[in-house]
Amino acid sequence: MSVLAFNAGSSTIKYSLFAGGSMELVAGETLEDPPANAVEKILAAISARVASDPVAAVGHRVVHGGRHFRESVRIDDRVLGLIGSLTKLAPLHNPPALRTIVAARRALPGAPHVAVFDTAFFAELPPDRHVYPLPYEWYENPGIRRYGFHGISHAYCSARAAEFLGRPPAGFRAVVCHLGNGCSATAALDGKPVATTMGFTPMEGLMMGTRAGSVDAGILFYAMERMGLTRMELFDILQRKSGLLGVSGVSSDFREVRAAAEAGNGRARLALAIYSHSVRAAVGSLAVALGGVDALVFTAGVGENSAELREEVCRGLECLSLRLDPVRNRSLRPDADLAADGPGGRILALRTREDLHIAREAMRGL
Ligand code: ADP
Fold first, then answer.
1. Whose CA is nearest to atom 4 of ligand 1?
2. Nearest residue to 304 (alpha-carbon basis) of 198, 191, 178, 188
3. 305 CB less than 6 Å from ligand 1?
4. Is residue 323 predicted with pLDDT exceeding 80?
5. Mean pLDDT over residues 75-94, rounded?
6. Domains contained in the chain, CATH given
């Protein structure tokens, strides 16, 4: 039997097919700008393999589970309706996931379909970490709280860090920095989240490719009232024209900003300096939330690949007993321990495996 994992984003669909027993990856692909019949095309591409090894379960990544979903859930019509009702909280992400689920259920009606939520990992954030210092009534209704995102990656990486180091999960303190186009950082103890940087939406926290991350809310009023920006213009700026792109004026892509900085572009250099400070400051805050760090994890496109960024972030973290080995940092590929020998916390580069986590969750209910 095999397990299929779908990850439908705002402009891509990724799929991964695993051999159910060994969880070995046997097929996978990312479709950019997927057509309406993307799921049918994917199933046609894997039909020969699946004929001899039928799909026993299908996992679907769903970004927002709101207050309804605190863990992965088998999808039925009621669940589908609830995911649809959360579209207002995740207008870019939940609709493509919904379309993929509907098409996949139609094509594979015999297999259980399981929704795996990016928010679910954070359902257990303690109240003093998820209630905003706003009027309490807003928390009660309509439910404004810190939901947290990238939970599939954070859950996978915090567990993988303990496994990689051969430590039992109990008492293990991990700070995971997921640095891709979107960026977030999470503190986890015993494999459970203690604090995270993203909030009610994925706009809060670290500086990102095109998103500002946390900014003074007063600036938003100033921009609307004094600079005459409309609500939609402001949203567009915060969501698509800020972050690395906004400061550098070059690109939202970390590699391109780095190349420009190396060529002497001052704004690109400034953007990178703000970016690394934003991550370093979050690591400090999350380390304090845990009372110390057993493993600092770098993951996703930037975290896994940019030795320079890791070096920059770790400059100043010696006070937390986190010491990077510069040679290991430059020469080792994920999954790897990049810390200097000695008694301090470990510094890991881990390849995030959201597909594997989704597939494991889909298998759990079998
Ligand atoms: P997403 O959040 O869309 O899944 P990724 O995790 O793929 O994104 O991360 C994309 C980011 O990773 C981009 O900013 C890209 O420049 C950066 N990146 C990818 N490869 C490298 C590399 N070799 N060195 C530095 N940055 C990289």
1. 180
2. 178
3. yes
4. yes
5. 91
6. 2-117 (3.30.420.40), 166-349 (3.30.420.40)
